[in-house]
Design a protein that fits this description.
alpha/beta, Rossmann fold, 2 domains, five-stranded parallel sheet, two-stranded antiparallel ribbon, 11 helices
Length: 204
Amino acid sequence: MIVDLDGVIRHWDMTHFRETARSFGIEPDEFAAIAFQKELLDAGMVGTISFGEWADEIGRKCAERHGCDAANVTAAFWALKWHVDWDVVELLRAVRSAGRAKLALFSNASTRLEEDLASVDLHVEFDVVFNSARLGLAKPDPKAFRTVAAQLGVTPQRCLFVDDTVPNVEGARDADMQAEAFVGVAPLRSLLERAGLLDGAAAP
C-alpha cells in the first residue's frame, strides 16, 4: 500500500498562504507563480536544489519583481502552515495493524520532507518513506513508481497506490500498479476493504 502525502494526509493552509503573499504586497496568484514556477518546482522535487535553495530563490525573485525584502520572503516561505488529517492517518494505522501489506509513503517533496514528518511524528506511521527529492525521480514518471516497487522488493502489480492527483494515478497505472484517486476518507476505507487490506470491523 503506497499513499501520497499532500492532498491526502497533509493539507496546506491556503488562507495563510494568501495572507503571507499580501503581507509583501504580492497577489496570491503571483506569489504562487513565483514559488511554484515549473523549472524551480521540478528542481526542488527531484533534489537538484535543496529546500533552502528553493526558498532563497523565491525570496530573490520576489525582491527583484516586487521590491520586498528577500530574506523576509524566504523566512515566510519556510513558515507556511499546514495540518494533518488524522482521520486518514487512523485509517492507515488500521491497515498496518491488519498486517496484510507494508505501508509506504511516496511524496513529490523537497529535501525538507523528513523534517516535516518528524515534526508531527508522522514518520513512525509508515514502514518506509519515499521522497522524490531523494530518489531523483518524481511522480507521475512511471520510472519513479517502478523504482519504488523495486525498493519495496515487489512487482508493481502487487502495489496499490493512492494519490489525489489524477496524472499521478495515471503514471502509477502506466507502471502497472493498481492505482486509485483519493477523494475522501470514506471512499478510501471502502477501497481498502475491497482490496482486502482492511476488514470493515477494523476501520476506525
